[in-house]
């Protein structure tokens, strides 16, 4: 029977690399995100396994449910859910924070993850098995200057992951949390609202993690034997020791 992985935020960065890597490991891929042209490009790139695309905004709970309901029968037995869609919006002191940015981070990183999980879970419950991987962050373990609401959103992902693991263990569903440090993706371009020079400076002077590093880690986690759950992993570039300690040339 086909092994199916549902990946949110598959249009770039960690999600894209994870979709490609899981396909290499024999998974049929449900790739999701808002940018339909990117979803088409991903479909072209993954030639070894079937890919089904769903375009929706994770903030829209009705759209999330409709997208999952629209899956053809042969795509409904989802074994792996990668809750990856998310971003930071802004990097400002709390007292200068933008309500729009705060809404975006809480709505996407926290509520979006809840909506997708809520929609996909019944499909796993029917099978009495499944594996949910939530992409948290070092920002869910520490708070750093100006990180305030992004850190809060990732602390929420940390709490939700622990809570899911406790409640879903009786359903035979594994829950894992992957918490990366600095990964060079479109993340900083989004955080700095298209300021590419500022975004590039985040990754200068040291070797940042690449999306592929996280994809390989996720692939390792989902391919462990049935009795093994890698519950939580913190993965950092070698030059990074904490949110605020990064050794740059
Ligand atoms: P990218 O910006 O490259 O990718 C973000 C992905 O999230 C895109 O595919 C985007 O798709 C999707 N997304 C964003 N908003 C929405 C939305 N409203 N609805 C649906 N999809 C959405 O960043 P990364 O790959 O780095 O980020 C992936 C995850 O990793 C995030 O949760 C991030 O917080 C986390 N992370 C990143 C780190 C880093 O340093 N890069 C470190 C630690 C954690 P689209 O725009 O097409 O909708
Ligand atoms: C992304 C890493 O350090 O920008 O979660 O918060 S960081």
Automatic annotation (TrEMBL):
Source species, domain of life: Bacteria
Keyword Secreted listed: no
Keywords: Oxidoreductase
UniProt entry tagged with the keyword DNA-binding: no
Pfam families: adh_short
Record family assignment: Belongs to the short-chain dehydrogenases/reductases (SDR) family.
Protein name, per record: SDR family NAD(P)-dependent oxidoreductase
Classification of source organism: Bacteria, Pseudomonadati, Bacteroidota, Cytophagia, Cytophagales
């Amino acid at each position: 029977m086909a092994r199916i992985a549902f990946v949110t935020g598959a249009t770039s960065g960690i999600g894209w690399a994870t979709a490609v890597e899981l396909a290499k490991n024999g998974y049929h891929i449900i790739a999701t995100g808002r940018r339909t042209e990117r979803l088409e490009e991903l479909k072209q790139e993954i030639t070894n396994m079937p890919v089904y695309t769903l375009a929706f905004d994770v903030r829209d709970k009705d759209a999330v449910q409709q997208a999952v309901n629209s899956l053809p029968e042969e795509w409904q037995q989802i074994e792996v859910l990668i809750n990856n869609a998310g971003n930071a919006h802004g990097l400002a002191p709390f007292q200068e924070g933008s309500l729009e940015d705060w809404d975006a981070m809480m709505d996407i990183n926290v509520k979006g993850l809840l909506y997708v999980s809520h929609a996909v879970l019944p499909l796993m419950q029917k099978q009495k098995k499944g594996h949910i991987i939530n992409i948290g962050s070092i920002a869910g373990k520490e708070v750093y200057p100006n990180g305030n609401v992004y850190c809060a959103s990732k602390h929420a992902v940390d709490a939700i992951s622990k809570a899911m693991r406790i409640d879903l263990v009786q359903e035979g569903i594994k829950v894992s949390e992957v918490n990366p440090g600095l990964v060079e993706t479109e993340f900083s371009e989004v955080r700095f609202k298209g300021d590419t020079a500022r975004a590039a400076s985040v990754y200068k002077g040291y070797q940042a993690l690449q999306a592929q590093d996280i994809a390989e880690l996720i692939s390792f986690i989902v391919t462990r034997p049935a009795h093994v759950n890698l519950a939580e992993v913190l993965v950092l570039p070698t030059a990074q020791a904490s949110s605020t300690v990064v050794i740059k040339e």
